[in-house]
Structure of Two-component system chemotaxis response regulator CheY:
Amino acid sequence: MGDNSSPNPFEHNQESSDPVSSVSGLRSEMRILVVEDFSTMRRIIRNLLGDLGYRYISEADDGLAALPMLHNQHFDFVITDLLMPHMSGLELLRAIRADRRLCHIPVLMITADAHREQIIEAAEAGVNGYIVKPFTAAMLESKITRIFARVDGE
């Protein structure tokens, strides 16, 4: 879907040949919150992140559990599922963007379905990128690298 030079953050699971930017140096120190209601998927994401060199990974099983964690701890990045009970990933994203203490945190949305309407809604709410399940460590690394390259370039 397009070439690797496209700036579109919503390209479907496209792997990048771009070199890893400053993310690689910060990887071991970056604090990531994984928000996912399915415990097996949380464990998979945690393991993929660990394989990529990230050491500080916290977990929440939905947006309601994630918000207090975001208020009481420091996080550099949020990876959230779109569809969850109690508070969806989209509702969590909107809460993050509406909070002046949290609005700077980049958010990667995970979804099982790549429906155009959901992607547009998430983009309008301020998501930094999305990835469709299932995905590999290389795909996840590419998304994180692209997000931080854009954030650092702003």
